[in-house]
Specification:
The complex is a heterodimer. By secondary structure, chain A is an alpha/beta fold. Chain A contains 14 helices and 15 strands. Chain A is globular. In chain B, helix 2 packs across helix 9 and helix 5 crosses helix 6. Chain B is globular, with a radius of gyration of 19 Å. Classes of the chains: A alpha/beta, B alpha/beta.
Chain lengths: ~350, ~260
Amino acid sequence: MDEEYVLMKGNEALAEAAIRAGVDGYFGYPITPQSEVMEYLTAAKPWERTGMVVFQAESEVAAINMLYGGAGAGKKVMTSSSSPGISLMQEGLSYIAGAELPVVVVNVVRGGPGLGTIQPSQSDYFQATKGGGHGDYHLLVLAPSSVQEMADFIEDAFELAFKYRNPVMILSDGAIGQMMEKVKFKPQKTRRSDDELPGWATTGKTPDRERNIITSLDLDPYRQERFNIHLQEKYRKMEAEEVRYETFRTEDAEYLLVAYGTSSRICQKSVQLAREEGIKVGLLRPITLYPFPKEPVAQLATQVKGMLSVEMSAGQMVEDVRLAANGRIPVEHFGRMGGVIPAPEEIVEALKQKIIGG
Amino acid sequence: MAELDLKDIIAEENVVYKKTKVLTDKPMHYCPGCGHSTLHRIIAEVIEEMGIQEKTIGIAPVGCAVFMYDYIDVDSQEAAHGRAPALATAIKRLLPDRYVFTYQGDGDLAAIGTAETIHACNRGENITMFFVNNGIYGMTGGQMAPTTLEGMRTSTTPYGRDYHLMGHPIKMTDLVAQLPGTYYVTRQAVHTPNYVRKTKKAVRKAFEYQALGKGVSFVEVVSNCNSGWKMPPVQAVKWLDENMLPYYPLGDIKVPQD
Protein backbone atom coordinates (compact mmCIF):
# COMPACT_ATOMS: atom_id res chain seq x y z
CA MET A 1 0.00 0.00 0.00
CA ASP A 2 3.07 2.28 0.32
CA GLU A 3 3.49 3.35 -3.31
CA GLU A 4 0.06 2.59 -4.68
CA TYR A 5 -3.11 4.56 -5.02
CA VAL A 6 -5.97 2.91 -3.15
CA LEU A 7 -9.70 3.53 -3.21
CA MET A 8 -10.99 4.59 0.20
CA LYS A 9 -13.61 6.58 2.06
CA GLY A 10 -12.52 9.98 3.36
CA ASN A 11 -13.04 8.93 6.97
CA GLU A 12 -10.93 5.78 6.49
CA ALA A 13 -8.17 7.64 4.67
CA LEU A 14 -7.99 10.09 7.56
CA ALA A 15 -7.68 7.21 10.03
CA GLU A 16 -4.92 5.45 8.07
CA ALA A 17 -3.07 8.76 7.67
CA ALA A 18 -3.25 9.30 11.44
CA ILE A 19 -1.50 5.97 12.07
CA ARG A 20 1.15 6.80 9.49
CA ALA A 21 1.70 10.32 10.86
CA GLY A 22 2.87 8.76 14.14
CA VAL A 23 -0.10 9.96 16.18
CA ASP A 24 0.17 8.79 19.81
CA GLY A 25 -3.49 8.67 20.72
CA TYR A 26 -6.99 8.83 19.25
CA PHE A 27 -9.88 9.39 21.66
CA GLY A 28 -13.36 9.39 20.17
CA TYR A 29 -17.05 8.74 20.50
CA PRO A 30 -19.25 7.30 17.73
CA ILE A 31 -21.40 9.66 15.68
CA THR A 32 -22.66 9.58 12.10
CA PRO A 33 -21.26 10.45 9.54
CA GLN A 34 -17.72 9.91 10.89
CA SER A 35 -17.93 6.63 12.81
CA GLU A 36 -15.68 4.93 10.22
CA VAL A 37 -12.68 6.75 11.70
CA MET A 38 -12.72 4.82 14.98
CA GLU A 39 -14.00 1.66 13.30
CA TYR A 40 -11.03 1.72 10.92
CA LEU A 41 -8.60 2.42 13.76
CA THR A 42 -9.88 -0.36 16.02
CA ALA A 43 -9.79 -2.84 13.12
CA ALA A 44 -6.29 -1.77 12.00
CA LYS A 45 -4.84 -2.36 15.52
CA PRO A 46 -2.28 0.45 15.34
CA TRP A 47 -1.23 -0.38 18.93
CA GLU A 48 0.52 -3.36 17.34
CA ARG A 49 1.93 -1.37 14.40
CA THR A 50 3.12 1.81 16.12
CA GLY A 51 2.03 1.70 19.76
CA MET A 52 -0.77 4.22 19.08
CA VAL A 53 -3.53 4.30 21.70
CA VAL A 54 -7.09 4.09 20.31
CA PHE A 55 -9.76 4.76 22.88
CA GLN A 56 -13.55 4.90 22.85
CA ALA A 57 -14.55 7.45 25.46
CA GLU A 58 -17.84 7.60 27.38
CA SER A 59 -18.79 10.89 25.70
CA GLU A 60 -17.42 13.66 23.50
CA VAL A 61 -17.00 15.67 26.69
CA ALA A 62 -14.66 13.01 28.07
CA ALA A 63 -12.89 12.59 24.72
CA ILE A 64 -11.92 16.25 24.39
CA ASN A 65 -10.69 16.28 28.00
CA MET A 66 -8.63 13.17 27.26
CA LEU A 67 -7.03 15.25 24.51
CA TYR A 68 -6.29 17.96 27.08
CA GLY A 69 -4.57 15.42 29.33
CA GLY A 70 -2.69 13.66 26.54
CA ALA A 71 -1.53 16.88 24.85
CA GLY A 72 -0.53 18.24 28.27
CA ALA A 73 1.74 15.22 28.54
CA GLY A 74 3.31 16.29 25.23
CA LYS A 75 1.73 13.56 23.10
CA LYS A 76 0.26 13.88 19.61
CA VAL A 77 -3.44 13.30 20.26
CA MET A 78 -6.55 13.73 18.14
CA THR A 79 -10.27 13.15 18.00
CA SER A 80 -12.95 13.19 15.35
CA SER A 81 -16.65 13.82 15.59
CA SER A 82 -19.56 15.46 13.80
CA SER A 83 -21.47 18.65 14.55
CA PRO A 84 -23.51 17.74 17.69
CA GLY A 85 -20.46 16.03 19.17
CA ILE A 86 -18.26 19.00 18.34
CA SER A 87 -20.73 21.25 20.18
CA LEU A 88 -20.18 19.10 23.27
CA MET A 89 -16.43 19.60 22.93
CA GLN A 90 -16.54 23.40 22.92
CA GLU A 91 -15.85 23.78 26.66
CA GLY A 92 -12.83 21.53 26.36
CA LEU A 93 -11.58 23.34 23.26
CA SER A 94 -11.74 26.64 25.11
CA TYR A 95 -9.64 25.16 27.95
CA ILE A 96 -7.23 23.66 25.40
CA ALA A 97 -6.83 27.04 23.68
CA GLY A 98 -6.39 28.69 27.10
CA ALA A 99 -3.79 26.14 28.20
CA GLU A 100 -2.10 26.41 24.77
CA LEU A 101 -2.21 22.71 23.98
CA PRO A 102 -1.57 21.23 20.54
CA VAL A 103 -4.45 18.95 19.56
CA VAL A 104 -6.15 18.01 16.30
CA VAL A 105 -9.94 17.83 16.11
CA VAL A 106 -11.77 16.64 12.99
CA ASN A 107 -15.35 17.80 12.38
CA VAL A 108 -17.15 15.83 9.66
CA VAL A 109 -19.99 18.33 9.52
CA ARG A 110 -23.67 17.35 9.28
CA GLY A 111 -26.69 19.62 9.05
CA GLY A 112 -28.15 21.30 12.13
CA PRO A 113 -29.24 22.88 14.35
CA GLY A 114 -29.93 20.32 17.04
CA LEU A 115 -29.94 16.71 16.01
CA GLY A 116 -30.58 18.04 12.49
CA THR A 117 -29.65 15.48 9.89
CA ILE A 118 -26.82 13.10 9.10
CA GLN A 119 -26.39 14.59 5.61
CA PRO A 120 -23.44 16.85 4.76
CA SER A 121 -23.49 20.53 5.58
CA GLN A 122 -21.17 23.51 6.09
CA SER A 123 -23.19 25.16 8.82
CA ASP A 124 -20.44 24.93 11.49
CA TYR A 125 -18.22 27.60 9.87
CA PHE A 126 -18.92 30.23 12.54
CA GLN A 127 -18.34 27.75 15.36
CA ALA A 128 -15.07 26.56 13.83
CA THR A 129 -13.55 29.89 12.82
CA LYS A 130 -14.81 32.38 15.42
CA GLY A 131 -13.87 30.47 18.58
CA GLY A 132 -16.82 28.23 19.37
CA GLY A 133 -16.44 28.14 23.14
CA HIS A 134 -16.08 30.96 25.67
CA GLY A 135 -13.27 33.51 25.60
CA ASP A 136 -11.16 35.23 22.94
CA TYR A 137 -9.52 32.43 21.00
CA HIS A 138 -9.30 30.85 17.58
CA LEU A 139 -8.72 27.37 16.28
CA LEU A 140 -6.56 27.11 13.20
CA VAL A 141 -8.98 25.61 10.65
CA LEU A 142 -8.08 23.52 7.58
CA ALA A 143 -10.81 22.60 5.08
CA PRO A 144 -10.11 19.53 2.91
CA SER A 145 -11.99 19.09 -0.35
CA SER A 146 -10.92 15.57 -1.29
CA VAL A 147 -10.16 12.18 0.21
CA GLN A 148 -6.47 12.83 -0.52
CA GLU A 149 -6.60 16.00 1.55
CA MET A 150 -8.38 14.17 4.40
CA ALA A 151 -5.20 12.09 4.56
CA ASP A 152 -2.63 14.84 3.89
CA PHE A 153 -4.04 17.39 6.33
CA ILE A 154 -3.47 15.18 9.40
CA GLU A 155 0.28 15.65 9.33
CA ASP A 156 -0.06 19.35 8.41
CA ALA A 157 -2.50 19.83 11.27
CA PHE A 158 -0.12 18.34 13.85
CA GLU A 159 2.78 20.43 12.56
CA LEU A 160 0.74 23.59 12.92
CA ALA A 161 -0.67 22.53 16.30
CA PHE A 162 2.80 22.04 17.79
CA LYS A 163 4.30 25.06 16.01
CA TYR A 164 1.74 27.37 17.63
CA ARG A 165 0.72 25.27 20.66
CA ASN A 166 -2.83 25.76 19.45
CA PRO A 167 -5.77 23.47 18.68
CA VAL A 168 -6.22 22.78 14.97
CA MET A 169 -9.52 21.74 13.42
CA ILE A 170 -9.93 19.84 10.18
CA LEU A 171 -13.35 21.06 9.01
CA SER A 172 -14.65 18.44 6.63
CA ASP A 173 -18.23 17.44 5.86
CA GLY A 174 -20.33 14.32 5.47
CA ALA A 175 -19.78 14.18 1.72
CA ILE A 176 -15.99 14.14 1.91
CA GLY A 177 -16.07 11.78 4.89
CA GLN A 178 -18.32 9.26 3.14
CA MET A 179 -17.25 9.40 -0.50
CA MET A 180 -14.61 7.11 -1.96
CA GLU A 181 -11.71 8.40 -4.06
CA LYS A 182 -8.21 7.33 -4.85
CA VAL A 183 -5.65 8.26 -2.24
CA LYS A 184 -1.90 7.82 -1.88
CA PHE A 185 -0.39 7.60 1.58
CA LYS A 186 2.94 8.79 2.90
CA PRO A 187 5.26 6.19 4.41
CA GLN A 188 4.93 5.28 8.09
CA LYS A 189 6.54 7.80 10.46
CA THR A 190 8.01 6.61 13.75
CA ARG A 191 6.20 7.82 16.85
CA ARG A 192 8.18 10.14 19.10
CA SER A 193 9.78 8.45 22.07
CA ASP A 194 9.13 9.65 25.61
CA ASP A 195 12.58 11.31 25.58
CA GLU A 196 11.57 13.51 22.66
CA LEU A 197 8.52 15.10 24.30
CA PRO A 198 8.43 18.92 24.49
CA GLY A 199 10.02 20.58 27.53
CA TRP A 200 6.75 22.16 28.71
CA ALA A 201 4.91 18.83 28.99
CA THR A 202 3.88 17.21 32.29
CA THR A 203 6.01 14.10 32.13
CA GLY A 204 7.27 14.12 35.74
CA LYS A 205 9.36 16.85 37.41
CA THR A 206 13.06 16.09 37.20
CA PRO A 207 15.52 17.80 39.59
CA ASP A 208 16.95 19.97 36.78
CA ARG A 209 13.76 21.93 36.24
CA GLU A 210 10.74 23.57 37.88
CA ARG A 211 7.50 21.66 37.79
CA ASN A 212 5.48 22.02 34.60
CA ILE A 213 1.91 23.21 35.02
CA ILE A 214 -0.79 22.99 32.36
CA THR A 215 -3.59 25.41 33.23
CA SER A 216 -5.80 28.10 31.73
CA LEU A 217 -6.34 29.84 35.08
CA ASP A 218 -4.86 33.16 36.18
CA LEU A 219 -6.99 35.26 38.52
CA ASP A 220 -4.80 38.37 38.22
CA PRO A 221 -6.54 40.55 35.60
CA TYR A 222 -3.34 42.19 34.38
CA ARG A 223 -1.55 38.88 33.91
CA GLN A 224 -4.68 37.44 32.28
CA GLU A 225 -4.78 40.41 29.93
CA ARG A 226 -1.09 39.93 29.07
CA PHE A 227 -1.83 36.28 28.32
CA ASN A 228 -4.71 37.31 26.05
CA ILE A 229 -2.43 39.76 24.25
CA HIS A 230 0.02 36.89 23.76
CA LEU A 231 -2.78 34.78 22.24
CA GLN A 232 -3.75 37.61 19.90
CA GLU A 233 -0.12 38.00 18.79
CA LYS A 234 -0.10 34.28 18.01
CA TYR A 235 -3.24 34.66 15.86
CA ARG A 236 -1.72 37.67 14.02
CA LYS A 237 1.35 35.50 13.27
CA MET A 238 -0.90 32.74 11.91
CA GLU A 239 -2.69 35.34 9.76
CA ALA A 240 0.65 36.51 8.39
CA GLU A 241 2.22 33.10 7.80
CA GLU A 242 -0.31 30.31 7.49
CA VAL A 243 -2.96 31.44 5.00
CA ARG A 244 -3.60 28.79 2.34
CA TYR A 245 -5.93 28.98 -0.64
CA GLU A 246 -6.30 27.91 -4.26
CA THR A 247 -7.59 29.81 -7.28
CA PHE A 248 -9.21 28.39 -10.38
CA ARG A 249 -9.49 30.42 -13.61
CA THR A 250 -9.28 33.78 -11.87
CA GLU A 251 -6.75 35.35 -14.31
CA ASP A 252 -9.40 36.90 -16.59
CA ALA A 253 -12.37 36.54 -14.23
CA GLU A 254 -15.04 39.22 -14.11
CA TYR A 255 -16.98 37.42 -11.40
CA LEU A 256 -15.74 35.29 -8.52
CA LEU A 257 -17.16 32.33 -6.64
CA VAL A 258 -15.74 31.78 -3.15
CA ALA A 259 -16.24 28.26 -1.75
CA TYR A 260 -14.46 25.67 0.40
CA GLY A 261 -14.70 21.90 0.86
CA THR A 262 -17.49 20.11 -1.00
CA SER A 263 -18.94 23.39 -2.31
CA SER A 264 -15.63 24.29 -3.96
CA ARG A 265 -15.71 21.07 -5.99
CA ILE A 266 -19.22 21.82 -7.26
CA CYS A 267 -18.19 25.39 -8.03
CA GLN A 268 -15.44 24.17 -10.38
CA LYS A 269 -18.19 22.71 -12.55
CA SER A 270 -20.21 25.93 -12.22
CA VAL A 271 -17.21 27.94 -13.47
CA GLN A 272 -17.00 25.67 -16.52
CA LEU A 273 -20.76 25.91 -17.21
CA ALA A 274 -20.76 29.70 -16.89
CA ARG A 275 -17.76 30.05 -19.17
CA GLU A 276 -19.54 27.94 -21.81
CA GLU A 277 -22.18 30.68 -21.76
CA GLY A 278 -19.48 33.34 -22.12
CA ILE A 279 -19.52 34.51 -18.48
CA LYS A 280 -15.97 34.88 -17.19
CA VAL A 281 -16.11 33.36 -13.73
CA GLY A 282 -13.28 32.25 -11.45
CA LEU A 283 -13.14 30.44 -8.11
CA LEU A 284 -11.24 31.13 -4.93
CA ARG A 285 -11.10 28.20 -2.55
CA PRO A 286 -9.93 29.00 1.00
CA ILE A 287 -7.97 26.05 2.44
CA THR A 288 -7.39 27.72 5.79
CA LEU A 289 -10.74 29.08 6.99
CA TYR A 290 -8.97 30.61 9.97
CA PRO A 291 -6.76 32.42 9.11
CA PHE A 292 -9.08 33.46 6.29
CA PRO A 293 -7.41 34.46 2.98
CA LYS A 294 -8.35 38.14 3.31
CA GLU A 295 -5.59 39.51 1.08
CA PRO A 296 -6.32 37.42 -2.03
CA VAL A 297 -10.03 38.21 -1.70
CA ALA A 298 -9.23 41.92 -1.30
CA GLN A 299 -6.97 41.75 -4.37
CA LEU A 300 -9.65 40.08 -6.48
CA ALA A 301 -12.16 42.67 -5.29
CA THR A 302 -10.19 45.20 -7.36
CA GLN A 303 -10.50 42.95 -10.45
CA VAL A 304 -13.99 41.41 -10.49
CA LYS A 305 -17.43 43.04 -10.59
CA GLY A 306 -18.98 40.88 -7.88
CA MET A 307 -18.51 37.82 -5.68
CA LEU A 308 -20.79 34.96 -4.70
CA SER A 309 -19.98 32.99 -1.56
CA VAL A 310 -21.28 29.47 -2.09
CA GLU A 311 -21.79 27.48 1.12
CA MET A 312 -24.00 24.64 2.33
CA SER A 313 -25.35 26.96 5.03
CA ALA A 314 -27.52 30.06 5.44
CA GLY A 315 -24.44 32.19 4.74
CA GLN A 316 -21.58 32.24 7.21
CA MET A 317 -18.28 32.58 5.32
CA VAL A 318 -19.95 35.32 3.25
CA GLU A 319 -19.36 37.65 6.22
CA ASP A 320 -15.60 37.14 5.97
CA VAL A 321 -15.71 37.59 2.19
CA ARG A 322 -17.62 40.86 2.64
CA LEU A 323 -15.13 42.09 5.25
CA ALA A 324 -12.24 41.32 2.90
CA ALA A 325 -13.96 42.94 -0.12
CA ASN A 326 -14.65 45.92 2.15
CA GLY A 327 -17.55 47.34 0.19
CA ARG A 328 -15.71 47.68 -3.15
CA ILE A 329 -18.06 45.32 -4.99
CA PRO A 330 -21.32 43.48 -4.32
CA VAL A 331 -20.85 40.24 -2.32
CA GLU A 332 -23.80 37.87 -2.02
CA HIS A 333 -24.41 34.36 -0.70
CA PHE A 334 -25.95 31.29 -2.23
CA GLY A 335 -26.40 28.05 -0.40
CA ARG A 336 -28.59 25.07 0.37
CA MET A 337 -29.25 23.94 3.92
CA GLY A 338 -30.28 20.94 5.95
CA GLY A 339 -28.05 18.45 4.12
CA VAL A 340 -29.02 19.47 0.57
CA ILE A 341 -26.06 19.69 -1.81
CA PRO A 342 -26.45 22.38 -4.51
CA ALA A 343 -26.21 21.49 -8.21
CA PRO A 344 -23.69 23.35 -10.41
CA GLU A 345 -26.53 24.83 -12.52
CA GLU A 346 -28.22 26.31 -9.44
CA ILE A 347 -25.02 28.14 -8.60
CA VAL A 348 -24.71 29.63 -12.10
CA GLU A 349 -28.36 30.71 -11.89
CA ALA A 350 -27.78 32.31 -8.48
CA LEU A 351 -24.72 34.13 -9.84
CA LYS A 352 -26.80 35.57 -12.68
CA GLN A 353 -29.65 36.62 -10.43
CA LYS A 354 -27.78 37.91 -7.39
CA ILE A 355 -24.61 39.38 -8.93
CA ILE A 356 -24.71 39.80 -12.69
CA GLY A 357 -28.33 40.88 -12.96
CA GLY A 358 -28.18 42.81 -9.68
CA MET B 1 19.82 27.77 81.99
CA ALA B 2 21.71 27.93 78.73
CA GLU B 3 19.89 29.91 76.13
CA LEU B 4 19.00 28.17 72.88
CA ASP B 5 19.46 30.23 69.77
CA LEU B 6 17.69 29.57 66.47
CA LYS B 7 20.52 27.37 65.17
CA ASP B 8 20.19 25.04 68.17
CA ILE B 9 16.45 24.84 67.82
CA ILE B 10 16.60 23.81 64.18
CA ALA B 11 19.54 21.45 64.67
CA GLU B 12 18.84 18.00 63.25
CA GLU B 13 18.62 16.28 66.68
CA ASN B 14 16.01 18.78 67.89
CA VAL B 15 13.73 18.46 64.85
CA VAL B 16 10.50 16.68 65.66
CA TYR B 17 8.67 17.61 62.48
CA LYS B 18 9.61 19.16 59.15
CA LYS B 19 7.84 20.10 56.00
CA THR B 20 8.27 17.69 53.12
CA LYS B 21 10.24 19.08 50.19
CA VAL B 22 7.41 18.02 47.88
CA LEU B 23 5.37 20.89 49.35
CA THR B 24 6.34 24.33 48.00
CA ASP B 25 6.96 27.33 50.28
CA LYS B 26 3.88 29.15 49.01
CA PRO B 27 1.45 29.91 51.87
CA MET B 28 -1.80 28.01 51.28
CA HIS B 29 -4.96 29.99 50.59
CA TYR B 30 -7.18 27.53 52.46
CA CYS B 31 -9.29 28.73 55.41
CA PRO B 32 -7.93 27.94 58.90
CA GLY B 33 -8.89 24.40 59.86
CA CYS B 34 -9.74 23.26 56.32
CA GLY B 35 -8.97 19.64 55.49
CA HIS B 36 -7.50 20.41 52.05
CA SER B 37 -4.20 21.66 53.47
CA THR B 38 -3.80 18.53 55.62
CA LEU B 39 -4.54 16.20 52.72
CA HIS B 40 -2.15 18.13 50.45
CA ARG B 41 0.59 17.64 53.04
CA ILE B 42 -0.15 13.93 53.40
CA ILE B 43 -0.04 13.38 49.62
CA ALA B 44 3.22 15.35 49.34
CA GLU B 45 4.79 13.39 52.23
CA VAL B 46 3.85 10.06 50.65
CA ILE B 47 5.26 11.14 47.28
CA GLU B 48 8.54 12.08 48.99
CA GLU B 49 8.67 8.90 51.10
CA MET B 50 8.02 6.69 48.06
CA GLY B 51 10.60 8.63 46.02
CA ILE B 52 8.21 9.10 43.10
CA GLN B 53 8.24 12.90 42.63
CA GLU B 54 9.92 12.55 39.23
CA LYS B 55 7.27 10.11 38.05
CA THR B 56 4.13 11.72 39.46
CA ILE B 57 1.57 13.81 37.58
CA GLY B 58 -1.28 15.42 39.52
CA ILE B 59 -4.62 16.65 38.21
CA ALA B 60 -6.23 19.58 40.00
CA PRO B 61 -10.01 20.15 39.93
CA VAL B 62 -12.23 23.19 39.75
CA GLY B 63 -13.05 24.10 43.33
CA CYS B 64 -11.03 25.15 46.36
CA ALA B 65 -8.19 22.81 45.35
CA VAL B 66 -7.87 24.44 41.92
CA PHE B 67 -4.48 25.80 43.00
CA MET B 68 -3.19 22.43 44.22
CA TYR B 69 -0.36 22.80 41.72
CA ASP B 70 0.87 25.87 43.61
CA TYR B 71 1.54 23.72 46.68
CA ILE B 72 2.39 20.16 45.63
CA ASP B 73 5.66 20.24 43.73
CA VAL B 74 4.90 17.80 40.94
CA ASP B 75 4.09 18.23 37.25
CA SER B 76 0.41 19.12 37.21
CA GLN B 77 -2.56 19.77 35.01
CA GLU B 78 -5.63 21.80 35.90
CA ALA B 79 -8.79 20.16 34.56
CA ALA B 80 -12.14 21.58 33.52
CA HIS B 81 -14.85 21.09 36.16
CA GLY B 82 -15.41 17.37 36.72
CA ARG B 83 -13.09 16.11 33.99
CA ALA B 84 -9.99 15.16 35.99
CA PRO B 85 -10.52 11.38 35.48
CA ALA B 86 -10.65 11.91 31.68
CA LEU B 87 -7.30 13.74 31.75
CA ALA B 88 -5.82 11.09 34.02
CA THR B 89 -7.08 8.28 31.76
CA ALA B 90 -5.23 9.69 28.75
CA ILE B 91 -2.04 10.57 30.64
CA LYS B 92 -1.78 7.13 32.24
CA ARG B 93 -2.46 5.31 28.97
CA LEU B 94 0.10 7.42 27.11
CA LEU B 95 2.69 7.36 29.94
CA PRO B 96 1.93 4.04 31.67
CA ASP B 97 5.00 4.05 33.94
CA ARG B 98 4.03 7.32 35.66
CA TYR B 99 2.00 7.73 38.85
CA VAL B 100 -1.11 9.72 37.99
CA PHE B 101 -3.50 11.04 40.62
CA THR B 102 -6.66 13.14 40.55
CA TYR B 103 -7.84 15.40 43.36
CA GLN B 104 -11.48 16.48 43.32
CA GLY B 105 -14.18 17.86 45.55
CA ASP B 106 -17.77 16.68 45.85
CA GLY B 107 -19.26 19.07 43.30
CA ASP B 108 -16.51 18.21 40.84
CA LEU B 109 -16.46 14.42 41.29
CA ALA B 110 -20.04 13.62 42.34
CA ALA B 111 -22.13 16.16 40.37
CA ILE B 112 -20.77 17.57 37.12
CA GLY B 113 -18.13 14.86 36.72
CA THR B 114 -20.29 11.84 37.59
CA ALA B 115 -19.93 10.25 34.15
CA GLU B 116 -16.12 10.63 34.10
CA THR B 117 -15.88 9.26 37.66
CA ILE B 118 -18.07 6.22 37.03
CA HIS B 119 -16.48 5.31 33.71
CA ALA B 120 -12.86 5.77 34.82
CA CYS B 121 -13.64 3.55 37.84
CA ASN B 122 -15.52 1.01 35.74
CA ARG B 123 -12.70 0.75 33.20
CA GLY B 124 -10.25 0.18 35.99
CA GLU B 125 -7.84 2.94 35.01
CA ASN B 126 -4.58 2.49 36.89
CA ILE B 127 -4.84 5.82 38.68
CA THR B 128 -5.30 7.12 42.21
CA MET B 129 -8.35 9.26 42.87
CA PHE B 130 -8.70 11.56 45.91
CA PHE B 131 -12.19 12.77 46.74
CA VAL B 132 -12.64 15.49 49.36
CA ASN B 133 -16.22 15.46 50.60
CA ASN B 134 -17.25 18.46 52.70
CA GLY B 135 -20.89 18.44 51.66
CA ILE B 136 -20.83 21.87 50.07
CA TYR B 137 -19.49 23.99 47.20
CA GLY B 138 -16.72 25.84 49.06
CA MET B 139 -15.10 28.05 46.47
CA THR B 140 -18.30 29.38 44.90
CA GLY B 141 -19.63 30.39 48.30
CA GLY B 142 -21.44 27.57 50.08
CA GLN B 143 -24.08 26.23 47.68
CA MET B 144 -25.71 22.78 47.96
CA ALA B 145 -23.53 19.89 46.80
CA PRO B 146 -24.70 16.40 45.80
CA THR B 147 -23.31 15.25 49.17
CA THR B 148 -25.05 17.95 51.26
CA LEU B 149 -26.80 16.24 54.19
CA GLU B 150 -30.56 16.25 54.48
CA GLY B 151 -31.74 19.34 56.33
CA MET B 152 -28.38 21.06 55.94
CA ARG B 153 -28.60 24.78 55.21
CA THR B 154 -26.58 26.12 52.31
CA SER B 155 -26.83 29.30 50.25
CA THR B 156 -29.07 27.49 47.74
CA THR B 157 -30.99 25.49 50.37
CA PRO B 158 -31.54 28.29 52.89
CA TYR B 159 -34.31 26.30 54.61
CA GLY B 160 -32.33 23.06 54.60
CA ARG B 161 -31.95 20.34 51.94
CA ASP B 162 -35.32 18.68 51.39
CA TYR B 163 -34.94 15.27 49.77
CA HIS B 164 -38.46 15.52 48.30
CA LEU B 165 -37.14 18.39 46.19
CA MET B 166 -33.42 17.67 45.85
CA GLY B 167 -32.97 13.96 46.43
CA HIS B 168 -30.70 12.28 48.94
CA PRO B 169 -27.01 12.95 49.49
CA ILE B 170 -25.09 10.66 47.15
CA LYS B 171 -22.62 8.11 48.52
CA MET B 172 -20.24 8.14 45.61
CA THR B 173 -17.58 6.04 47.31
CA ASP B 174 -19.98 3.19 48.07
CA LEU B 175 -21.16 3.43 44.47
CA VAL B 176 -17.69 3.13 42.88
CA ALA B 177 -16.84 0.26 45.23
CA GLN B 178 -19.51 -1.76 43.36
CA LEU B 179 -17.65 -1.40 40.08
CA PRO B 180 -15.23 -4.16 39.06
CA GLY B 181 -12.60 -1.61 37.98
CA THR B 182 -11.90 -0.32 41.49
CA TYR B 183 -9.16 -2.15 43.41
CA TYR B 184 -9.02 -0.26 46.68
CA VAL B 185 -11.81 1.99 48.00
CA THR B 186 -11.69 3.66 51.38
CA ARG B 187 -13.25 6.55 53.31
CA GLN B 188 -11.06 8.53 55.69
CA ALA B 189 -10.90 11.88 57.52
CA VAL B 190 -8.22 14.38 58.57
CA HIS B 191 -9.76 16.38 61.42
CA THR B 192 -7.99 14.56 64.29
CA PRO B 193 -4.35 13.34 64.60
CA ASN B 194 -5.53 9.73 64.70
CA TYR B 195 -7.49 10.09 61.49
CA VAL B 196 -4.52 11.88 59.86
CA ARG B 197 -2.33 8.84 60.61
CA LYS B 198 -4.93 6.46 59.16
CA THR B 199 -5.40 8.61 56.08
CA LYS B 200 -1.67 8.68 55.47
CA LYS B 201 -1.58 4.88 55.45
CA ALA B 202 -4.50 4.84 53.00
CA VAL B 203 -2.83 7.39 50.73
CA ARG B 204 0.37 5.36 50.72
CA LYS B 205 -1.52 2.20 49.76
CA ALA B 206 -3.45 4.09 47.08
CA PHE B 207 -0.17 5.07 45.40
CA GLU B 208 1.53 1.70 45.94
CA TYR B 209 -1.37 -0.19 44.38
CA GLN B 210 -1.07 1.94 41.23
CA ALA B 211 2.18 0.15 40.40
CA LEU B 212 0.34 -3.18 40.41
CA GLY B 213 -1.84 -2.10 37.50
CA LYS B 214 -5.01 -3.57 38.96
CA GLY B 215 -7.39 -0.63 38.72
CA VAL B 216 -8.51 2.51 40.49
CA SER B 217 -7.50 3.29 44.06
CA PHE B 218 -10.16 5.61 45.43
CA VAL B 219 -9.74 7.55 48.69
CA GLU B 220 -12.60 9.69 50.01
CA VAL B 221 -11.70 12.15 52.74
CA VAL B 222 -14.68 13.48 54.70
CA SER B 223 -13.79 17.05 55.54
CA ASN B 224 -15.09 20.24 57.05
CA CYS B 225 -15.80 23.54 55.31
CA ASN B 226 -15.84 26.05 58.13
CA SER B 227 -16.57 29.02 55.89
CA GLY B 228 -19.27 27.25 53.90
CA TRP B 229 -20.80 25.72 56.99
CA LYS B 230 -20.52 29.14 58.72
CA MET B 231 -18.97 27.66 61.85
CA PRO B 232 -15.75 28.30 63.76
CA PRO B 233 -13.23 25.46 63.22
CA VAL B 234 -13.79 23.70 66.56
CA GLN B 235 -17.55 23.69 66.10
CA ALA B 236 -17.16 22.48 62.51
CA VAL B 237 -15.07 19.53 63.62
CA LYS B 238 -17.69 18.64 66.23
CA TRP B 239 -20.46 18.98 63.62
CA LEU B 240 -18.49 16.75 61.25
CA ASP B 241 -18.23 14.05 63.92
CA GLU B 242 -21.89 14.25 64.86
CA ASN B 243 -23.48 14.66 61.43
CA MET B 244 -21.18 13.77 58.54
CA LEU B 245 -19.62 10.59 59.94
CA PRO B 246 -22.89 8.79 60.77
CA TYR B 247 -23.95 9.21 57.12
CA TYR B 248 -20.46 8.75 55.67
CA PRO B 249 -18.88 6.16 58.00
CA LEU B 250 -15.09 5.88 57.91
CA GLY B 251 -13.10 2.80 56.97
CA ASP B 252 -12.16 0.58 54.05
CA ILE B 253 -15.05 -0.23 51.71
CA LYS B 254 -13.17 -2.45 49.28
CA VAL B 255 -9.80 -4.02 49.99
CA PRO B 256 -7.64 -6.04 47.61
CA GLN B 257 -8.62 -9.71 47.67
CA ASP B 258 -5.41 -11.20 46.32
